[in-house]
Amino acid sequence: MPTSQIEFRPLHAAHGAEVRGVDLSQPLDAEVARRLRTGWLHHQLLLFRGQRIDDPTHIRFARQFGHLEIFPEADQRSSQHPEIFRVANTDEAGNLRRPDDPVAGYLTIVESWHTDSAYRPIPSLGAALRALAVPAEGGDTLFANLLAAGESLPAGLRARIARRTAVFSYEATRARAAGPVRALSEAEKHDTRAVRHSLLRRHPDRDNRVSLYISPLNIAGIEGMAEGEASALLDELTDWATQDRFVYRHRWQVGDLLLWDNRVTMHQVMPYDRARERRVMHRTALAGSEPVLPPL
Length: 296
Ligand code: OGA
Ligand code: MN
Known about the structure:
The protein is 23% helix and 24% strand. The chain is α+β, with helices and mostly antiparallel strands. The chain has a single domain, classed as Double-stranded beta-helix (4-Layer Sandwich). The protein has a seven-stranded mixed sheet with strand order 1-2-3-13-5-15-4, with helices on one face. It has a three-stranded antiparallel sheet with strand order 12-6-14. The chain has a three-stranded antiparallel sheet with strand order 8-7-11. Manganese (II) ion (MN) binds at residues 110, 114, 116, 267.
């Protein structure tokens, strides 16, 4: 495909662009892949519409941007392709899951603001999510620009988080699910021990610009700060970062694929009627290449 046909159309003043002229069912040539990578870093969020691709093609596409993570819990993954994390309220045969099903219970966590795999020592650098079934109403995904939020942070708020690290925990994450979750085994607990990351991070592929790095779903506390003070500060940071001017709201269509940069964005899913409507999304996550880097 000639690269001149690729177009990036901005989705929102905050960030995001729709890519036109790329068919993801076909292998991308090196020049197209290079332009997509540059566009992805710049726009932070790329939307590809009308892509009717299967899981192997999705995985092949994502691999052009890096190695893939495997989600820690097997019952949340595709049985055929472990690289696929299913964000779905159905089982693989398409049957709606009951609200008391722990797989469904766990997935309510995506309704809290987060950036993917923030509980890992090296968090995910990006993700590609595609829509296979979408509800008639609700289920939009909101994406906040943490780079813009960080660069415009009021001086007082910035001073309060300078050189601070937060504790990110998988156990705290699961405790925030609105439904029942299965208990973690001791081995799983060990593999997902709490980690610490700087609340401000620089982006090595973006000239070391400094963004906010918060993931309210995963943060259990702030190092050296009392619990009440830490949660009040986190609320203030979240309110700041999720103002309309920093947030793009995505209304899904079947065949949409979104590729985002987890280092400078966080996201949240809006509620929908999960007892009646099917919402089936397949995700691949790009493994991070370096730990969260504090400002220089
Ligand atoms: C994810 C996630 C959002 C969605 O896949 O990481 O948070 O819209 N999903 O389902
Ligand atoms: Mn997510």
